[in-house]
UniProtKB/TrEMBL annotation:
InterPro entries: Coronavir_polyprotein_1ab (IPR050534), P-loop_NTPase (IPR027417)
Coiled coil: none
Keywords: ATP-binding, Helicase, Hydrolase, Nucleotide-binding
GO MF terms, alphabetically ordered: 5'-3' DNA helicase activity
Keyword ATP-binding: yes
Recorded superkingdom: Bacteria
Name of protein: Putative Superfamily I DNA and RNA helicase and helicase subunits-like protein
Lineage of the organism: Bacteria, Bacillati, Actinomycetota, Actinomycetes, Micrococcales
Length: 405
């Protein structure tokens, strides 16, 4: 039976809040059977842990804010929303201000049932350690970028937890020596949803957001093999046009022999026609273009080149640095380019996902024929996710495809 949001009682305190004089406040619509509705229903009936997996652009922030409003202002729970960074915290506060009545949302300060508190995961852990606050439920954003230790520290004052995140992201950055935990079923640096999903006693409910609202079909076909669940697209992404006015495909590739070739490839995308909403067009400028690489040395070299060319507004960074960003045009340098070996850094699922999902209109995969030739005889096999990645899009990227046994 599908969850009916009308069955949630309206607390007296929430019903008294008005969005304007004489007009009763109403929460944002909650579609019966949607993932957001399932989250709300699961928490309301007492589910201890819910994990929501999302593709890139799947609507994580919308789910978090809408679920928080329904749980606090319609079900009367005390709700804590924990963000990964201060910028994400502020973005969630801004979204909540648009859909929740005045006075029902605060930054870090708790106000009890029927209220939403928002802070960073670090602040949540600090406050929990002091023991000065308790909540009915904590909703955690970008959960795959947080270790299970981070989340357990922050959630110690809550009875229920909802973890929302993208399993394709690069995982938590851990600088400590982790060899002491080798062999543990769930080391303390495990991404939090992965750890909670393995807890048989907790037995979390696991849900998947079904669509991306950012990418078109070509990008979805490229990304799906890298994910543990399938998803579709509801997006109408912007378009890039060539000099003849023809639409370029979302995904392209180009051979490069040097960093200079890569820089020239990025510059060649300046001045192209880019569609804008609703029906307009404009020319691409340097700030529309990003180059994503896997090594910091490549980043430094390209930054120096673009500086000398007068294109300092072109964004350059490693996959780790550019995770979370988005540009109309992205040039991604094949991780094996310039490498003598083909190891875990190059085949990391999170790195491949980030490098192939920073664009909104056009991704060009820059590959090195020399690297392909050098490594072709050295690679005896590839991780399963890389094989699926290549089989789904056999013409892309050609350098990695040549390594498939």
């Amino acid at each position: 039976m599908k969850f009916n949001p009308d069955l949630i009682p309206v607390p007296v305190a929430a019903a008294a809040e008005d969005s304007s004089p004489g007009e009763a406040w109403e929460p944002p619509p909650l579609e019966a059977g949607s993932v957001t509705a399932q989250v709300v229903a699961s928490v309301w009936r007492g589910e201890r842990c819910v994990i929501v997996n999302s593709p890139p652009g799947g609507g994580k922030s919308r789910l978090l804010t809408h679920a928080a409003v329904w749980l606090a202002l319609k079900a009367g729970l005390s709700v804590y929303v924990a963000a990964f960074t201060t910028a994400q915290q502020d973005a969630l506060l801004a979204r909540l201000a648009e859909i929740a009545p005045a006075g029902s949302v605060s930054k870090r300060t708790a106000h009890g049932p029927g209220h939403i508190t928002v802070s960073t995961i670090a602040a949540a852990a600090y406050d929990a350690a002091k023991g000065d606050r308790e909540f009915d439920v904590i909703l955690v954003d970008e959960a795959y970028q947080l270790t299970v230790t981070d989340v357990m520290n922050a959630a110690s004052g809550a009875e229920q937890i909802v973890l929302v995140g993208d399993p394709g992201q690069i995982g938590p950055v851990v600088t400590a020596n982790t060899t002491a935990w080798d062999g543990m079923a769930v080391p303390p640096h495990t991404p939090s949803p992965t750890a909670f999903a393995k807890d048989a006693h907790l037995n979390p409910l696991i849900l998947n957001l079904p669509d991306t609202w950012r990418f078109g079909t070509e990008t979805v076909e490229l990304l799906v093999p890298l994910y543990p669940f399938r998803f579709g697209t509801m997006a109408s992404p912007p378009l890039i046009f060539d000099a003849l006015g023809d639409v370029l495909p979302e995904i392209g590739q180009a051979a490069v022999a040097t960093m200079g070739d890569l820089a020239d490839l990025a510059v060649a995308h300046l001045g192209m026609a880019l569609s804008t909403q609703p029906w307009g067009r404009r020319s691409t400028v340097a700030s529309d273009v990003a180059v994503v690489v896997s090594r910091a040395a490549h980043e430094r070299e390209l930054l120096a080149m673009f500086g000398g060319m007068g294109h300092t507004d072109i964004t350059v960074g490693t996959a780790d640095k550019l995770q979370g960003g988005q540009w109309p045009v992205v040039i991604a340098l094949d991780p094996i380019a310039g490498e003598e070996t083909f190891g875990g850094h190059q085949t990391s699922m999170g790195r491949l996902v980030v490098m192939t999902s920073r664009h909104s209109a056009r991704l060009t995969w820059a590959h090195s024929p020399a690297a392909t030739t050098r490594l072709a005889d050295e690679v005896g096999g590839l991780p399963t996710h890389v094989r699926r990645f290549l089989e789904a899009k056999p013409a892309f990227p050609s350098t990695l495809r040549s390594h498939t046994p």
